[in-house]
Amino acid sequence: MVASSPNLIAIAPSLKPRNLKEVMEEAKGGTYNYGTAGAGTTPHLTAEYLFKVLGKVPVTHVPFQGAGPALNSIMGAQTQLASVALPAAVELVKSGRVRGLVVTGSKRSAALPDVPTVAESGFPGFEDVTWVGVFAPARTPDAILQRVNREVARLQQDPDFLARLAATGFEPLGGSVAESRDYLHKELAKWARVVKETGAQPN
Prior knowledge:
- By secondary structure, the chain is of the alpha/beta class.
- It has seven helices and seven strands, in the order E-H-E-H-E-H-E-H-E-E-H-H-E-H.
- 40% of the residues lie in helices and 16% in strands.
- Strands 1, 2, 3, 4, 5, 6 and 7 form a seven-stranded mixed β-sheet that branches.
- The relative contact order is 0.20.
């Protein structure tokens, strides 16, 4: 496992709601939609779970071909919200072109420290992240997997690499090959539950 980043739910700067609770109240009227980088992505499933299962509000998903178009859509007031991986939106939030509503990690992101977490905003224990890992064919010898894992671990100690991660909202992940497999299996089980509970569709 290489790195992880919280997802970000952003809102058009022109809209009145200032926090997640206010968005949830206004969205009960059924007029809110949100853009993502595509169906089946973690930001899509995160928003489905947050709004439809926990908040019980009828938001509409609008899939785009990438986070950029989803963010452009709220800047153009075509959609009210966007749910994207945090790195795609960091500079737009800092410049004020979009407003960060919540991040979905267990703690605030160092890249956007003023944006609260979902847990802080009324849903304790909520945590969803987008992660990056290195994969290999199933029959790759264990010695090679261990070597790759050692190289990733070495890279995660490099100050320049860590600074680049932090600037975009990522944090390093680590662990053994076995721990990486365990993390992956837990993520698969978690998102399978989310798909079942939300009824999310691939298109």
